[in-house]
Amino acid sequence: MPASAPAPVAVTGAEGFIGSHLVEALVAAGHRVRAMVQYNSFSSYGWLETLPGEVMDNVEVVLGDVRDPGSVHGLVTGTEAVYHLAALIAIPYSYRAPHSYVETNVTGTLNVLEAVRHLGIPRLVHTSTSETYGTAQTVPISEDHPINTQSPYAASKAGGDRLADSYHASFEVPVVTLRPFNTFGPRQSMRAVIPTVIGQVAAGERTITLGDLRPTRDFSYVKDTVAAFLAVGTAPAADVVGRTFNSGTGEEISVGDLVSLIGKIMDTELEVRADQERIRPAASEVMRLVCDASRLRAATGWAPAHTLEQGLAQTVAFFRDPLNLGRYKAGIYNV
């Protein structure tokens, strides 16, 4: 009799920026992927629609919603691992619609945990965010840094993290939490600063509209973040299960200096115009984030493979392609 095919892995949020890159990497590593895309009446698969046919031949797209327990149960049944990336992520929109963030980021995570628990899935990788730390109190920021949620988005993500911790402690759910610092690269939404700047320049603007230029961030190229997901998803359970891991470069750059660097890479002189709509409430702005990823490196051997400049060059090339740029609305404030 022929050997049975290995069990697939499931990815929630597969249609998004990081999710679509993770699907690609999982297929390249030999996995079949069951990819949840949020149900929509357009039958849109998001960024998965741009992946090569040879990748999508190994992907089963499931339209569903992490807010619905039945959708999640069906998605993860029979899988060997679940990568939970589905989330509402835009910080400005969390000021407008906080209930939506709790429903997706907290209740949605609860639904994933419950499904993994009851179906006995061997590994769950839960996605956190560096925003849960708030402005750095000590640098670099290790996983022992206090949690200080300065936006409804950050609070909802911290709520999901605490649920994940509790399900491991209470029910021995084999969950590992990855807490990426700021990820960037091709396919990212223009609600984030790097595609906002590059997209405006690629669209012909030379005066860039932004919010506060003072905050510093630790930017990781998306392929490095995806490598971190794979590292914690495949490492021996004894090394990672029940633990939280930061992923980041350990280097920080201010938004203002980032704009100058992008201008240099794009060979363009840029001016910046402040837009009050893009500035967070004063007590909600996270002023400094810089990562200590030594725990992840010790447990899995992971390390970033791309410099900021290398990642920016790849991102610039993506946005300079008219087909890619045409998928965005570069002339508006993307909340």
From TrEMBL:
Gene Ontology MF terms in the entry: carboxy-lyase activity; GDP-mannose 4,6-dehydratase activity
Keyword entries, A-Z: Lyase
Pfam families with a match to the protein in the record: GDP_Man_Dehyd
Enzyme class: lyase
InterPro entries, sorted: Arna-like_SDR_e (IPR045869), NAD(P)-bd_dom (IPR016040), NAD(P)-bd_dom_sf (IPR036291)
Gene3D superfamilies reported for this sequence: NAD(P)-binding Rossmann-like Domain
Domain NAD(P)-binding: 11-314
Enzyme Commission (EC) number: 4.2.1.47
Transmembrane stretches, start-end: none
PANTHER family named in the record: DTDP-D-GLUCOSE 4,6-DEHYDRATASE-RELATED
Name of the protein: GDP-mannose 4,6-dehydratase
Protein's organism: Streptomyces telluris
Top-level taxonomy: Bacteria, Bacillati, Actinomycetota, Actinomycetes, Kitasatosporales
